[in-house]
Amino acid sequence: GGVVGRNAYGDLTNITVDVTPDSYVKATSLEDGIGYRTYVGGVVGKLASGTIENCAVIGTSAVSASNSSDSYVGGVVGSADANVTVQNCYNEGAVTGNGQYTGGVVGHVNSGITLSNCYNTGAVTGKKYTAGIVGRLPYSGATVSNSYNMGTVIGESAYVGAVIGSGSGTISNN
């Protein structure tokens, strides 16, 4: 992540990551020609539990992962595990995933999340489960509200959306 690679059980508040031209937040996972899971986020790569509030990724350069078919890439959070709250956060930069789970704000949610008042204006490019806000939101206990995407979204496979690539739960006012 731009600030933290993995945050086990803590809160991140009032953080701005300025990804200036010719700089980026990137993970490459390759060992003996085999790609492994990568977790990349403009603020945090993997958030096990906690709150991310008033965080921003600004600038025009990229948050990306390459050489992995199983990548979790988000403009703010790569992957969120359980009992996570993401509020008042945004991403302006390009987000690129070389595998699954790419989102302008959050790449993938593993369990319950409350995401509100977030937005993305950067271009989002991925393969499967690609979207402007959350790439994959597979749990019915999740809530996404009052969030929007203004960036271009390009996916090479199934489950591509302006706000949610594939989702369950409550999705409102987006």
Write the layout of secondary structure elements.
Blueprint: E1 4-7, E2 12-13, E3 16-18, E4 24-28, E5 30-31, E6 34-35, E7 38-41, E8 44-47, E9 50-53, E10 56-58, E11 62-66, E12 71-74, E13 77-80, E14 84-87, E15 90-91, E16 94-97, E17 102-103, E18 106-109, E19 113-116, E20 119-120, E21 124-126, E22 130-131, E23 134-137, E24 143-145, E25 148-149, E26 153-155, E27 160-161, E28 164-167, E29 170-172
Report what the structure shows.
It is built from no helices and 29 strands. It starts with a strand and ends with a strand. It has strands at residues 4-7, 12-13, 16-18, 24-28, 30-31, 34-35, 38-41, 44-47, 50-53, 56-58, 62-66, 71-74, 77-80, 84-87, 90-91, 94-97, 102-103, 106-109, 113-116, 119-120, 124-126, 130-131, 134-137, 143-145, 148-149, 153-155, 160-161, 164-167, 170-172. The strands form six sheets. A six-stranded parallel sheet has the order 1-8-13-18-23-28, with no helix packed on it. The protein has a six-stranded parallel sheet with strand order 2-9-14-19-24-29, with no helix packed on it. Strands 3-10-15-20-25 form a five-stranded parallel sheet, with no helix packed on it. It is globular, with a radius of gyration of 14 Å. It is mostly beta strands and 174 residues long. Strand 5 (30-31) and strand 6 form a beta hairpin.
